[in-house]
Specification:
The structure is a homodimer. Chain A contains nine helices and no strands. By secondary structure, chain A is mainly alpha-helical. Chain A folds into two domains: 44 residues, Orthogonal Bundle (Arc Repressor Mutant, subunit A), CATH 1.10.10.60; 128 residues, Orthogonal Bundle (Tetracycline Repressor, domain 2), CATH 1.10.357. In chain A, helix 1 crosses helix 2, helix 4 crosses helix 5 and helix 4 crosses helix 7. Chain A binds a DNA duplex through helix 3.
Chain lengths: 184, 184
DNA sequence: GTCTATAGTACGATAGAC
DNA sequence: GTCTATCGTACTATAGAC
């Protein structure tokens, strides 16, 4: 039996999602996930710093999707952040909605996983803030613009994965932005 | 020696903060905190669901401070949320700044504690959203208004506890709101 | 109040890829 | 040979079960 099959991280992610769906998050041990993926517990922790992390995107590529879509320069920080949100739509195509729903159901049932998700979004806001500040925006305005952008993203995503929702990610995002404009 | 000295939760909180400052969060065990407060480990977990919780406000009173300051009715959800923020200033008087700074330094050094703080603020946003939705605001607008309000609070608090900052909480909050208006 | 399962860490050894 | 992914084991602290 090959000790080296490659793609261990991917196998672990798939195995974890399946086990969490049938047994629940708390009802599944790291040892079980590892066994289902054909590796040992020790290997699981080489790929993921902790059990929760197996359910999340790599933070670097996640943030990069938003940062790369930021316009090179802009006087209006809110407009810049909203442009960045456009890049995120690429991550949430129709073919991923099912997977996202399954994942979200697991997270919604577990406060610890919600905490991790919030941390990831908060780190994104910090990166956006830093990027805007580097363009000469004052720190408070930069932070407010970044948080607003993340709020739009969070609201869009939540709606997109809601049961029965059929509109595409960009369609929902447009509506959320419409509501934001109406609020202000 | 009295077996029942009362205020166990308070003693545990004080003991925890002191130990975290001198030994770090990870370097301090629940057993040490309990011993310093004159109780057993078991008692610690009777008062706090987990180790992190010892550093945080009771969520109900924290949320209540904002919800009670919400105006009874308002056509403008953003204005309503901002009114709610006014109530929060009561929690952050000058006499608490030192304690808040010490606490914040510990949280800033530990991702797990940041996660917990984010969860608390997220739960606050959920409560604000529900309150607004109960007043007939559509769910998306309510969520955006609530998130905006929490962003203002977070930004204000972060500035208030920054090293060298001397302005009062309401003064900083006014400036943050000023920046928000300028952004929109 | 006692007991125990499991997450997560530390250090070390081994084996395939190049 | 080097580099990197895997595995072995012993250990502590949290947190929940009894």
């Amino acid at each position: 039996m090959a000790r080296w099959q490659g793609g261990a991280a991917e196998r672990l992610k798939e195995a974890a999602l399946g086990l969490f769906q049938t047994q629940g998050y708390d009802g599944t041990t790291v040892a079980e996930i590892a066994a289902a993926a054909g590796v040992t517990e020790r290997t699981f922790f080489r790929h993921f710093t902790d059990k929760r992390e197996v359910l999340f995107f790599d933070q670097q590529s996640f943030e990069g999707t938003f940062l790369n879509a930021l316009p090179a320069s802009s006087a209006d920080p809110i407009a810049a952040v909203i442009a960045g949100l456009g890049g995120a739509a690429a991550l949430f195509g129709e073919e991923r909605r099912g997977w996202s729903r399954a994942r979200q159901a697991i997270i919604a049932a577990n406060p610890g996983l919600q905490e991790r998700e919030l941390l990831k979004l908060s780190l994104l806001a910090v990166s956006l803030t830093r990027e805007l500040a580097g363009r000469g925006i004052d720190p408070i305005s930069a932070a407010l613009a970044a948080e607003t952008g993340v709020a739009v993203f969070r609201t869009t995503f939540t709606t997109w994965v809601a049961e029965g929702e059929t509109r595409s990610f960009p369609e929902i995002q447009d509506e959320v932005l419409e509501r934001l404009r109406a609020l202000l």
